[in-house]
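Late entry, written up from scratch paper. The run itself happened at the end of the previous shift, but nothing got recorded in the book at the time, so transcribing now.
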Amino acid sequence: MADRPRRSGAILSLRGGDTADPVADRTGGPPLWTCPRCGHRFVSRNLWHSCSRFTLDEAFERSTPAARAAFERFVELVEECGPVVVIPQKTRIALMARVRFAGGQVRRDHVLANIALTRRVDHPRWTKVEEVAPRWFAHRFVIRRPEDLDDPDLKTLVCEAYREHGEQRKLRRRAG
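Output as recorded:
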């Protein structure tokens, strides 16, 4: 995957290079705030964050090629739902549509992946489900190789997470 962008500190879209706000116009939400120090985007002005700037290469420098390939397949799966920004951080990699709604923690031979759903869903792939906030359930699962993501039910749930949390549709329905 040598054609993937790798600039230090970049917010990455694995398909389209650097990007800042891939879905703001599509979702109809207010503009995102951009941190003047790190360039990361958030739904709230001055939201606390670490201002870190890492690359995917740094995140995967101690992992196996299979773990990297599994994560890149996870990003491709999310991209089938809509535009996504990949944000490498010190301890995780966040996936963002309008907000961060999925991601993973890189380990030597696997990625501890997660998606946020508005409801608890039973699925054999989950290693843990926890309610982080009302209507915000983190569903965690392990991916070791790209084939781990071939489950059509998983794709449906990833797209649900993208719509409900990533695009903030759950908020617009509640407000409207």
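Residues 53-175 form one domain.
(Scratch paper discarded after transcription.)
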